[in-house]
Amino acid sequence: MPPIYNVDRFLPGDARGVVECVRSVYGADYPRACLYDPAAITQLNASGQLTSVVARDTEGSVVAHAALEIFGWAPVAEMGMVMIRPSDRGQGVLERLTTLLYGRAQEIGIKGVVTELSTTDPAPQRLVADEAEMPCGLALAAWPPAGGASRTEEGGVRRSFLTCFRYMKKPTTIVAAVPSRHRMVVRAIYRQIDVDVDFSSGARADGDSCITVIPIREWRSALIRIDAIGMEIEQRLRELVDELVHENECETLYLDLPLSNECVEEACTAAEEVGFFFSGIGPYYFDTGDALRLQYLTSEPHISRLALVGPQAIALGEHVAHEWARVRSRKWAQELRTRRIHAA
Known about the structure:
alpha+beta; 5-stranded mixed sheet; globular
């Protein structure tokens, strides 16, 4: 007889069991400190910032956990913090947890759900491939190494993730003002769910940029959101990279540009001059619509270790890897020219 599980919304009495579940799966290496603190788990669920669901065995012990985490800056949520006690895997628990969370997402009224899948374990990707999620981004070197090692320490390899998205109500057409070099992959992303893309022509930026920086300290990273694209965008990005990387010791930066903004092509090109590279699409990452996401890395992303499943994920990964290499080689050439000028 298969095990019997009670899959339900989190209750305050589950908090210590969640911590024990996290430790059974990750030890002390999970990069979200709140999941090691019963009071923090309870408070985050009470405030609505987290919507946790758990699976309990017949003795009431928590054997699995997953949660929706509401983005504070976009009408979407991330489904994550998924862990199943090793002895209880392969029993259909994950499917029951995610079904409950997608139902909750509909109740809350958010526009979509993001899922970040490991690029070292193909199993979750195979599961998603059978569902309605679309691979839409690849976050290289997103998480700190296990054990909190620095990128400069031996074995300190940051972990990468495939970003997938499920629309609660998908659009019919997307307007995208992206450079021509990214149009094929952008069209392919939306083709997965039969959404047309209208590629608009670019325009010159004018006025001042409106920029918000959101630190993600647990991951030694930061998110840069550009709500308005100004003519000084490249200089502003250079200043931010210098501040966040050299002063705040960030190892990974994310840059979100409003996809439909007619100045996105100019802003994307400027960002690539600074060292950012194409990372994917962020559906509904702005109130006005989707985002073009780029990344900036300070370390080698170890692309050869990526294990991607399915033609869409593989094609996306190939484009991201190509763009990282292209931007990196350009950045090195610029640094070499600068050194030669100073030497002269």
